[in-house]
Protein 1
Amino acid sequence: MSTTIERLLIIQDRDRAIARLTRESQDIPARKQQIEDRLKAHQESLHQTQEALKKAQAGIKQVEVEVESRRQKINRFREQQNLVKKNEEYRALEHEISVVQEEIRAEEDRELEFMEQVEQNRALLAALEADLKKEDGRVREDQQVFDRRMDEIQAEIGKLQADRKALAEQVDTDWRNRYERIMAKTGDYALVPVEHGACGGCHMNLPPHLIHDARKGLTSVQCSYCSRLLFWRP
Ligand SMILES: [Zn+2]
């Protein structure tokens, strides 16, 4: 294998590592955002439960006010009953009282419903708060893991780029340009091995003279289909 091919293979290896790390770093902000969104969704359901609890508690207070005003109404009817002379007037008031008592019972049924809602929402709230506390801790940890990974990636990319630059300086400009052109076009490999008589990049069967040249270790053997540089893997 020619020295040029050997050097280009190392450059290719560095370039592929840089590309892989770059892709990974580009994914990190979206992954951090996903975690934030999950936490926000939890906070939102906690907030909704708090609102539902407040509503049910306000409902109970409202019912109590309603019941109290109806009790006073009944008291006034009773006072009137003491004053009336005729039986039918007395019975009419008795009827009014029973109507209001019925209303009180309806209010008390509503109060029971509100009480149940308070109980349910309180239990839910306690569970959500405990969950959120755990989730919050996990989110901070995950974010730190991502931040540390981001720093690592940047440091690694910096090292690889310096390494690659030093290597590239040892390769003839023409070859370097050819490598860059093929790499830019294919986006994966500029150099591929001959594999079972086919190009290791596009997998087309190669004409025998190309296989022969690659085997001899010539540098300028290019696949006639995809233009990738071919080398013979010993
Ligand atoms: Zn090919």
Protein 2
Amino acid sequence: MVWIEADVTGPWTVPSVDVWHDHAVFHFLTDAADRARYVGHVREAVKPGGTVIIATFAPDGPDRCSDLPVCRYDAAGIAAELGEMFTLVETIADVHRTPSGAAQSFIYSRFVREPPA
Ligand SMILES: C[S@@+](CC[C@H](N)C(=O)[O-])C[C@H]1O[C@@H](n2cnc3c(N)ncnc32)[C@H](O)[C@@H]1O
């Protein structure tokens, strides 16, 4: 186990991983350059044949969280952000209940990185 505390859009590195699982982080990246840096880390980190699972607010989810603006995605939107290296395998919709009882629509998208040719 390797624990890294970092700005996900910053210059950190990680040994190759089989699975990248993001729950409710990517949707906070409202700047396209930050998203591109995040995706760069995904490409660096996830092994060929590896899995990427990203859970974000869905199109009918909140447009702010913790008083911060967020981006909302459908599966095609997440796929477009990750690019052609990753193939969308599965999408699951979920409604998260906050401690105060509010409903938040999420979408979980699972991708596989193309294996080597
Ligand atoms: C809604 S919380 C989700 C936390 C956890 N993944 C979960 O599902 O319980 C959003 C998290 O995104 C993190 N976050 C937002 N922008 C980030 C960034 N640029 N780099 C690293 N973490 C970030 C925040 O620190 C916060 O912990």
Protein 3
Amino acid sequence: MNILIFDSLSKKKKKFIPINKNNVRLYACGPTVYDYAHIGNARMAVVTDLLVRVLKTKFKNVTFVSNITDIDDKIIQASNELKISIKDLTSKFFKIYNDEMLSLNVNLPDIQPKATEYIKDMIIMIEKLIKNKCAYVEKNHVMFDVESYKHYGKLSRRSIQEQLDGARIEIGEYKRNARDFVLWKPSDDNQPGWISPWGRGRPGWHIECSAMSKKCLGTPFDIHCGGVDLTFPHHENEIAQSCSAIQPNAEPGKFCRYWFHNGFVTYNGEKMSKSLGNIKLVNDLLKKYDGETIRLCLISAQYRQPLNWTKDILEQSKTTLNRIYKNSKEIHNERYEFPLPLENEFFLEFLESLYDDLNTPKALGILSKLINLKKNKSNGNDIKLIQAINESLKLLGISKKAKPIKKIYSESIEMLIEERNKARKEKNFDKADEIREKLKSQKIEIEDTQEGTVWKKLD
Ligand SMILES: [Zn+2]
């Protein structure tokens, strides 16, 4: 059975063929951590988590990276307004974000790189872009020259005029063309900054995803995920940067193979926005509803469709879940482990619907059908049915029993690798070996390559 994924670049539903079937690699644009997450953020995390779960039914090893933006003008502004340091502010909301996602049964990404820990990699990439004549330096700014990349606009399918409508038009003293965007900008004494070849400054937002996906996954990788609102300009810019750093005008496929975009969440049919005061925070919802109920709402529509959040949707999901749990009491006492019961025709029908571009409405319909079948007394003890319902609940992440496990965060891995590299430089090989073993005990294998040390998960 093949997994089909709609690729937003080619606008086609395509059979998923990984670059390396022994390690499927995904990247998703994560949150900017200065405030509570809203349901739009949660939808991205939940559907991406579901995608990873579905991929894992077919491929043994899946590596999922999702970044944390911990330096940004909005963060600087919030830190000034709240009078707390940027570090304290971002650490607080990073932890809150992960805790909330765990409440929604989201398995945390394997790696959550923080932008501030990858500044060096961003500088290296920007230098490469300048060398390849795809970026220019002007008054301590480094700008990406959009005209240098002939594939620009392919993902969002926007014409140059439409791109201009979406961009800030003004051509500053450092900006040659309206469509060019910032890779690096100067910081004044009151702003956070890092030493760079272009003076003390900080990165633009887009470059972090290009630098971190390259460092944590390698390019090309398989699937790039994110909310549809990021298609332009963020993802368009990521493609331009990542590909131009390889070679001027490199094809978008040199960066990643599939673009997976989830749709908007609206509230009563309106776009959620601060000015309308209709933003729904996960934090508030979790006070009234459990995570499984919120998660079920978030997967009730197919991920590419807009999801209209209403007052009733949560109550409906609560009723649905109660019905499922009521009719599957003994199911939760049954524990089935992987491998999945692929000989089970009930479960296969369910799985097939998810393999079809995560068709969750169909999958939920099949689950409901299975529950009805089980309610029929003659099927009440059918082990295949019990097994199929149990596995379906676990795969959708709405089982009360199968909770996600907190993982070690990538930063500790990165720190250990840095420590090991330092030990090697000092020719302290005993210590270097000791750290390698320590990582191995955490099921992390490291490899020293020309590009530096890379790591991967072991099973
Ligand atoms: Zn991104």
